[in-house]
Amino acid sequence: MNYKPLSGSTESSISVKISLSTIAIITVCLPLFAFIYCIIWSLLYNFHSSTSTHCGVNNYLPSISSAIGSFSPQKYVWRLSIALHSTPRYLLAFLYFIKFKSLTILLLNIIEITSLVGLTFISSIENYPIHSKCFVLFMISALVGMFSHLRKSQKSSMRKYMAITNITAGVFAVYFFTRHNWYCETGVYTLFALSEYLVVLSNMLFHFQAYYDFNQTNLCIVSNRYQFVDSF
């Protein structure tokens, strides 16, 4: 699919030209670095508070919700990264709509991004009902969105691996969380946290495939108007 230059525009009139593969890298790196920062900072400075649960047994890793939403400066770093990465995510969602001609994929991507922003800025402490609904929407839209993308790009083996990893890690997360609450065994909550990390990281790597989907596409600003050049 080719996009012709806007009427009257030439290559020399392009004032800004950004590779969409670069946008894909930035979009993934922002939450990835924030995620790693929040985990490490919580382990270094909020270890006891971030790893403790109602069971009172020893745990060695914080859950994601604790690491990114319960302490400062972690929660502000995470919120900033999600806010900055959301705009290019919406742009990529629109591009996938153009690429696949699928309204379903567009809606799923928008719901996933919006619910992620919602659960990030509305913590469980501030408003648990809204936070929990955003979390459920995020998980469902992300999972269904993965299958929808796989149907349209069946040749992407990395997407398949990441989808399998995401589902498997999600099942283990539910299992370890339930087991921890029932039996209060030492270290089980740590396994739950590890499973959570895999869910998040596999989701990020899944969406990073946009780097390869749009590696020959550029976003250009021409005479204060926007256009896409090259091809998908």
List the helices and strands and how they pair.
Blueprint: E1 14-19, H1 20-45, H2 47-51, H3 64-69, H4 74-100, H5 103-121, H6 128-152, H7 157-183, H8 188-207, H9 210-213, E2 217-222, E3 225-230
Antiparallel strand pairs: 1-2, 2-3
Helix pairs in contact: 1-4, 1-8, 4-5, 5-6, 6-7, 7-8
List keywords for this structure.
3 strands; globular; single chain; 232 residues; PGAP2; CWH43-like N-terminal domain-containing protein; 3-stranded antiparallel β-sheet; disordered N terminus; mainly alpha
Rounded to the nearest angstrom, the distance between the terminal CA atoms is 6 Å
Order of helices and strands: EHHHHHHHHHEE
Question: Which percent range fits the helix content?
Answer: 55-70%
The total count of strands amounts to 3
> Low-confidence stretches at least 5 residues in length (pLDDT < 50)?
1-9
The helix tally amounts to 9
Largest sheet at a glance?
A: 3 strands, antiparallel
Report Rg: 20 Å
Strand order of the largest sheet: 1-2-3
Mean pLDDT: 87
Strand content: 5-15%
Can you give a write-up of this model?
The protein is mainly α. Helix content is 69%, strand content 8%. The chain contains nine helices and three strands, in the order βαααααααααββ. It has a three-stranded antiparallel β-sheet. β2 (217-222) and β3 (225-230) form a beta hairpin. The protein is globular. The termini are close together. InterPro entries: CWH43_N, PGAP2. It is a multi-pass membrane protein. The chain crosses the membrane at residues 20-44, 130-149, 161-177, 189-206.
